[in-house]
Write a structure and sequence with these properties.
Order of helices and strands: HEEHEHEEHEEHHHH
Helix content: 25-40%
Number of helices: 8
Oligomer: single chain
Largest sheet: 5 strands, parallel
Number of strands: 7
Structural class: alpha/beta
Distance between the termini: 106 Å
Strand order of the largest sheet: 4-3-5-6-7
Amino acid sequence: MSKVPAILAPTEQDIQMLLAAQAHIGNQNMEIRMNPYVWKRRNDGVHLINIGKTWEKIILAARIIASIENPADVVVISARPNGQRAALKFAQYTGAQAIAGRFTPGTFTNYITKTFREPRLIIVTDPRIDHQAVEESSYVNVPVIALCDTDSPLKFIDVAIPTNNKGKHAIGLIYWLLAREVLRLRGTIARTAPWNVMVDMFFYRDPVEEAEKEVEVVEAAPYGGDNNEWAETEAAEFGTQGVVEPEQTGEWGAEATWGDSDANATWQ
């Protein structure tokens, strides 16, 4: 299916993961240069990406990244929120630098800026959104690896990985596969053994959804019931049958006799 050596060929699990993450689902629009990577067009107008081409470009990109002697000379960029976590995790495991969020203009061209960098290779999540980084890389002759959808522009792109670059699962999976292949080529992990890092670590997590999950966990806690359950639990743990009220003694325990007070007589 793919024109790579047998040792680098994808496994059945890799293909299933790409399909499950919908990495092959493209867009209704298509850039003319992305035509070689498109398998066919569905009846609803959505273009489907050839998974074999995707795997070939993942292997090619991994070989390019592994050839860089200093891993810190590789910069991975993602202005799209769905790819920021994946970019940070990729940089963490491969030793690259990550720029997650807004790209400061002049990072590659203006040495006066505090964020000035001189990379040997950059990786962008979306050429359309990260166009500023792609354009600046062309000024300083830095090669670019990009995750490209069917409607992504390929201007100044040296290696295009055809994939769905809008879904959080597809972006996270591509970066996970790319990081795993880079580590395998460097000899950090064995090719025969599975990588102990879960692909879920590369997926984008919505803060609203995470907050809702925390609320559900709190509500499902053992002390989330009514007051009776709380009292019974306390009684079982501390050996008490409840809270004993103190005896009312002295003046505070005496009943008030407002009707017999002399002060009431002055109001009559």
